[in-house]
Amino acid sequence: MTGKEPEDLLGASPSMFGIDESSLTSINNDKNLTELEKIGGVSGLAALLCSDLTKGLDPSASGEVSLESRKNAYGVNKIPETEPESFWMLMYENLQDPIIILLIAAAAVSTGLGAGIPEQRVKNEWIEGVAIWVAVLIVSSVGAANDYQKDQQFRKLNAVKDTISIKAIRSGELSMITNFDLVVGDVVILDQGDKIVADCIMFESHGLIIDEASLTGESDPIKKTLDQDPWIRSGTQVSEGSGKAIIVAVGLNSEWGKTMALMEDAGDEQTPLQDKLEVVAGMIGKIGFAVAIACFIALMIEWLVKNQGNYAANVNQNGPISFFLYAVTIIVVAVPEGLPLAVTISLAYSMKKMLLDQNFVRVLSACETMGGATAICSDKTGTLTENRMTVVEGWFACNKLDHAPAKSDISLDLVNELKMNIALNSKAFLTETSNGRVGFVGSSTECALLLLLRSWGINYKDVRTQHEADIVQLNGFNSARKMSSVVVNKAGKKLRLYNKGAAEWVIKRCTHLLNTAGGLDTMDNQSNEYLMSIVTDMAKRGLRCICLTYTDYELEDVIRPKDFFEDPDQTDQNLVLMAIVGIKDPVRTEVPGAVAMCKNAGITVRMVTGDNIHTAMHIARECGILTEDDHVALEGPVFRKMFEDRLTDLQLILPNLRVLARSSPEDKLTLVRLLKQAGDVVAVTGDGTNDAPALKESDVGLAMGIAGTEVAKEAADIIILDDNFTSIVKTVLWGRAVFNNIRKFLQFQLTVNCGALIISFIGAVAGGKEPLTVLQLLWVNLIMDTMGALALATEMPSMALLEQPPNGHAAKLVNNKMWIHITVQGIYQVVIMLLCLYVLPLTNSRYAITTSAEYYANDCLSNTPSHLGIPVGTGSYNNGTPDGTWYCEVMNNCGFPQNRIVANTVLCPLYVNGTAVPTSQVDAVCFNNSTNLGKGCTVNDNLNSAINYMSTQLTNQQNNDYIPALSVLFNVFIWCQIFNEICCRRINDEYDFFSGLEKSPIFLIVLVITIGLQVLIMQALGLFFTVQPQIWQEWLVCIAAGFGTCVVSWITRFVNRNTSFGEKAILTIRKPIMKSVSGRNLGGPNGSFRNSGSIKGGSVKGTALINGPSSFKATPRSSGAGGAASSHHELRQASLSNNKVVPF
Question: Could you tell me which residue ranges the Cation-transporting P-type ATPase N-terminal domain spans (predicted)?
């Protein structure tokens, strides 16, 4: 690739090429066959593009015909990505939240009043407003950084998602190259299931049919023809057949590129878990809103009472503006915007890690759904086995060999015929890997046969090159037919059809067999039974049995329809059996352990394969799938018959069905639907085009990355890159981890929410005091939302998750066990904070709160005279102009406002000649002016001014006195959250919530940052956060109180595990449909067996292989032993025609 953008490349002019971009684009856009013919058809176009239809492009070419020159001349095969949003734009979007805007507005008013009102400015009350601005910017920056990193991760994952390997011919060799490396002039090979990634023109077709629904909306696939419609558009898919084509338009010049250029970006995908969490967030937000309103009203009532007649001076600090900020901040804290963020972070992190585990997630919701899987329907080849197939024995023209045949073991004529069948009747090819091993591309079965040719010293590529022109029709393998065929022109004398496929299917179509002398023997019942016994014997030892056959047709036949060979069902008849090969594909060594883990996790693994039932059963036993006496294996035809005629019987044995052999894609689809109806969460693997419906129908579709077609990958939710069953188990592990991590975060956040809201409400309503300031609440919000989401949502999965039952569809986000922990921790934290708020000031002079009486007694003379502008004096009334001491004595001893109890004593200056002091302040103070009695006087006005001033100063003093205790409260609260975050790492009553901490680097980093910032706030940022530095004893007490959450958590876990208060499991495993069945006489004559057993709790005792038509009658009977009634059924065989039931 060059460093240029695609749009820059489009304008470049060609040099050596005989056709420019605009002319080529015009021919392609208009599908102009006339113009194409004028330049010599496809071969002429290839010459103009300096390409070769046989050898393709030369990647080593330099100069004006190099690959780079082609990109400059005709563009690159890539659609320009939309520019990612910048960090600043993401930050701006975070600031658009209505609550944040409200907070900013209130902070602006607070800052303006704090700086504008002289009294406020003197006390630096503008600081809180500025600090809130800074805090909002920090919170928004952290949120923007999270969003930016999430976007970058998803872009990287999408780049992987959009990368497709394409079969192309370069320098005469078949190569696998990525779609982004394709250029105009490349020759590509198209097979069933391939996705078309560039516009091209077909020049060779073997029944090529294209699905163009993605472009045209037409549901019917289009059959392509060389003479009328050779145009193949990007964005479409190959439904059937195969062919070759030359690329004529890439990137923005292609049909798909132009369509994508017109499309706007789709909105962010919401997963079911995100939807659930948004509902939870909404409910919590409403509760927080109610608490905020209650706090605001309570604080306002107290403020109005305290500041009668002096509202303007106290409107900002400890006034309505401050209360409004506090209420808005409570809402900010209460609204758990971290919940959806936690899901997004967890999913993005999990997707990245799953990619390392060979799982590429295409659909976000699949991560969480896979965690609840209760059934996995797995393919056999390459998933449970190594997909390294080798021919190990066989039957060759009546010669049975117990080893892979050497060339000398069979006749030369047979070698030549097998060579033609294996090389030409195949789309697979072998590659040489860097470590010297042979790589398989295409069907592993076909590759095993190609390896057999190689062992005979035959180069399959030479055979293909030599006879390429002789191929009349190629019909690839079809999962419904279980065979493939090719029609070859034999030197202009006759047409020979070579067929190969599943042994028991192909043998049915054979009428003759080759004998050792090279002659033909007629197939009779005896020979048929003998051959089937050979197939069964090999299948029982886990070998895949493939028949290779041929039949001849006349070169010309006037009564034969023109499209006769396009229908393989009518051509693949009257076959001559040449050989039966047994192909071994060993079980992956790690699969039995993985299957066992699935069983422990409450997941039923079923094998769904197209192989012979004996082969399937052998492999299933090796894998640990078919282990119990009550497990059942069915053949596809029997399964279909039971579904159509005896659905109830099929539902009865469904929980015990473990193997479905010789199945068709329709069988797989039916099985998925039945399992879903039974309440299972179903994951299905698939690799073929016909598997797409089942992949779509399942809860999670798993496509094979190596053997899977592009159609299957498009239909899947997750692509298993290494086709390995253990990778599927890892998807379950990660899926459970996502759900578990969200639960961890939810438990943590709800605990913080409860604690913060309750203490805020109690403080405001009971004492008129905000226990946590606005900035402190914003710091709590940062810990709780963003940092908590980062820490808990990125926890690595523990293998212990696979020892728990599946979550299932109906699993609650917050279960009873979690509610117990949230409640207990919330109570503990609230009690600790109430102790700090109300008890701590009574225990130590460092935290003591000045009372009203103490303040008036000790500080009146230092405040009142200066406020009124009078001398301190000695307490003289001075004929209506009292001094400061007189006013202080009145305020302290006359009940205005202190100590009414001593008003009628000599301590009160208003007590004269034994006359009781009036209870009305104005009457008592203005006693010497009878004409104005009760109407006020200057002395009373001064006294009111002094009282209001002293009240304000008292409030300020008490606020300062509260700082030491509230500092401890704040520090304790944060340490409680730090340790509670650690406790929340284990939410199923495990005692070891500290274990594995060293394996969670993000958690540790968040923990260190949180602790570091808390220390900085407490020791250096007290001016902004209204805290005082802690002494070492206070740090010890705060950390110890925080660690108390761990002690409380351990006690709660102990109680839960040893009483009925805690749940014993997250979710009870779904009970099977079938309750209890007893099976009697599951068979009869002709190879049947008798079994007496019962199905208890959904299991059929007496394992049965059913590979022939049979019907069962279910007869209910009752049992009332011990006063309990249970439902039993008898499985009685009603028809034994052609039935064969054998024990495992």
Answer: 38-115
- The reply to whether CATH 2.70.150.10 applies to domain 21-77+182-261 is yes
Is residue 599 within 8 Å of residue 630, measured between CB atoms? no
Q: Which tokens is 1052 given?
A: 């709660």
E runs forming strands in 566-603: 575-584
Instruction: Map tokens 């913060």 to a residue.
Output: 756
Half-sphere exposure of 672 (CA within 13 A, CB side): 28
Which of 703, 709, 700, 694 is closest to 164 using CA atoms? 709
Distance between CA atoms of residues 23 and 485, nearest Å: 40
Mean pLDDT value across the chain:
79
Short-list 249, 266, 130, CA closest to 184? 249
Retrieve residue 687's tokens. 């690799």
Give which of 105, 111, 151, 104 is closest to 128, Cα–Cα.
Answer: 111
The three-point CA angle 720-543-479 to 5° equals 55
- In whole angstroms, give the CA distance from residue 127 to residue 1024: 7
> Of 150-164, 229-243, 784-798, 1081-1095, which range is least confident?
1081-1095
- pLDDT greater at residue 216 or residue 726: 726
Whether the upstream peptide bond of residue 897 has omega within 30° of 0, thus cis, is yes
CA dihedral 80, 82, 83, 88 (to 10 degrees): -170
CA of 369: how far to CAs of 272, 292, 676, 680, 695, in Å? 9, 37, 13, 12, 14
R_g of the chain computed on alpha carbons: 42
Which sequence spans correspond to the domains of the chain? 21-77+182-261, 85-166, 359-385+588-723, 390-553+560-584
Q: What is the pTM of this model?
A: 0.69
Confidence of residue 1049 (pLDDT cuts 50, 70, 90): very high
Pick the catalytic residue from 186, 194, 357, 379.
Answer: 379
Q: Tokens in use for 187?
A: 């020759």
Distances (CA, A) of 594 to 354, 619, 798: 17, 14, 15
- 687 in active site: no
* Cα 190 to Cα 204: distance, rounded to the nearest angstrom: 10
- The answer to whether the CB of 253 falls within 8 A of the CB of 7 is no
Question: How far is the CA of 869 from the CAs of 881, 884, 922, in angstroms?
Answer: 12, 9, 21
CATH top class, domain 390-553+560-584: alpha beta
Q: What angle do CA 108, 967, 775 make, to 5 degrees?
A: 20
What fold characterizes domain 359-385+588-723? Answer: Rossmann fold (3.40.50)
